[in-house]
Amino acid sequence: MYDPLHDSTPGTNLDYPESYWASVSGEAPPDNGQLTEDIDADVVIIGSGYTGLSCALHLAREHNIKAVVLEANKTAWGCSGRNAGFILKSTGRKPWTAMTKSWGEEVMRGIYSEVCEGVDTVNSLIKEGIDCEQQTNGYIKVAHKPSMFSGLVSQAKLLQNMFSYDVDIISRDELHQNYMADQNAHGAIRFNDGFGINPLKLAWGYQKLAQAAGVKIHTGSPVIELTEKNGKQVITTPNATVTAQKVVLATNGYTPKDFHLSVANKTLPVLSQIIVTEPLTEEQLQACNFLTSNVIMDTRALKYYYRKLPDNRILFGGRGAITGKSAEDPYYANRLLAVLKQSFPALQSVNYQHAWSGWICMSLDDIPHINQAEDNENVFYAMGYCGNGVSFAVQAGKRLADKVSGKELPDLPLYNKQLPKFPMPALRRVGQWGYFHYGKIKDTYF
What we know:
Layout: H1 20-24, E1 39-46, H2 50-63, E2 68-70, E3 86-87, H3 96-103, H4 105-126, E4 139-142, H5 149-163, E5 167-170, H6 172-178, E6 188-191, E7 195-196, H7 199-212, E8 216-218, E9 225-229, E10 232-236, E11 241-249, E12 268-277, H8 282-288, E13 295-298, E14 305-308, E15 314-319, H9 330-343, E16 352-362, E17 369-373, E18 376-383, H10 389-404, H11 413-416, H12 428-445
Helix pairs in contact: 2-7, 2-10, 3-4, 4-10
Protein name: FAD-binding oxidoreductase
Enzyme class: oxidoreductase
Pfam family, one: DAO
């Protein structure tokens, strides 16, 4: 499997992974195909995931700039088409309390406002006619052991006080009776505004909206060189060259090794693994009392997350392999299946029918960054969603469009700070290995 820390290209015109989403979503919408002749453009966007498509859409709609999107493989081939499809009010991994401690309450509230606006934008775009199999609103965060429940209660009260956030506190008995009888869930808090979607169909919906606004999307067109000549950005693909005024890097966790100095050694791509079971029978669902279609995540350092899909399958996800070389080892899918069976003992005979993985993008300071390159004011990027990018990537793309057009952005660390470089970047995977072992011990004993 493609590994961004080792490979210089994600491939050319590769098909979608054998995921559940690819199996149920039908045919991808038509695009403009491979770029085969040299062109000029005002803006070139590299990457056709949520960020790139949102940037292109908002450039066209709000700034009358028709961007050209270049994609190595297919629209949403990367994490945008592989994720679990959780729409949440979150960004990065930095807690609100830590933001307040670092930057003060005003900045923290500014970031919260951006997060909320991102979810609102997703909702408004879906309402334009995107068929993404949106499920019932609700995000349940479960305590994976009894000692974690009090922390969730404190979190709920804090959010209620800080944001007047609508958060329900749910006891273990109530959770098991009214939502699902997860034996590893010891109480929960429930947010009323998260929901699940088909992430690949969502991305295809963004693609259609962008194309309707005049955006050209060239798939099968990997960027093999990005240089500057006479003040212009020169983007070289296998069959043609684009000369542009400005370039947007919207590749996030799939950014190839040494792709551009502005983001080199500033991210850590981490594999997330997902399985989807065979459809459950009504008897199996009743035995688990699996009543909810809400999205669910636990309190582990190495989190598990799951949801019941519209066809009564269970999607279950967690961390994957450390390197791309090991990504398809069945150990990681089987480990998730074993945890699912621990949570729901009635499912001992259930198997998974789909298993796949994808790269999420970690930043050193646990927040995304949307900015101009330090060494080139005509190169822009948005990266570092830390696994929470399904909704915020749309906001990041919208803000990228603002920044590319010269509009001033809110004075927030998301937009006024560069991606920090990892110390000793050659050892990033060693640090990741160490954190995984620490997390396993923490989740078991503390």
